[in-house]
């Protein structure tokens, strides 16, 4: 059972409801999460804690492919191994420099995270100046369009690493990026066996 917000694993599922403070760090427990199988491969138990979001939803080999948490889509700053969560020793992997396999990550920032230019609200109750010279009095339309653009970007992103564009599909119709797809033996969406991989150009 994973305790939040400290991120420690200190007891079994049966004892966890009776524990009010973490047995390792003595911090008050706000929530308890049962550790399930890896949401990507479903073969192994989740064993890597993502920070800062605090989710443990991937095994060590699948976590190596990720830059964003598959559960909440938050950028992963570092990964904590199961041994550290249990109070033992181990290494914390900082994603901005090196991922869990030791491969150097040169560019963590995603195009989705590019800063939007400051919007001129005009002040004094005036809206944004539009191309036709009139002023838009509400930002709701812009916010809707920004949300739609974000949704489109998420649909084209690999569902495993949430960082690279989908450029490989399986016979079931689902897709991933090539780097993740080459390591999959079954589809991460429908769990059908991967018999053939098709690259998209």
From TrEMBL:
Q: Entry's Gene3D superfamilies? A: Zinc/RING finger domain, C3HC4 (zinc finger) (3.30.40.10)
Which keywords does UniProt give here?
Metal-binding, Zinc, Zinc-finger
Query: Sorted alphabetically, which CDD domains does this protein's record hold?
Result: RING-HC_MIB1_rpt2, RING-HC_MIB1_rpt3
**InterPro entries noted in UniProt:** RING-FYVE_E3_ubiquitin-ligase, Znf_RING, Znf_RING/FYVE/PHD
Keyword Chloroplast tagged? no
Can you name one GO molecular function term for this protein? zinc ion binding
The chain positions of domain RING-type read 38-73, 158-191
Enumerate the SUPFAM superfamilies for this protein: RING/U-box (SSF57850)
**Record-given protein name:** E3 ubiquitin-protein ligase mib1-like
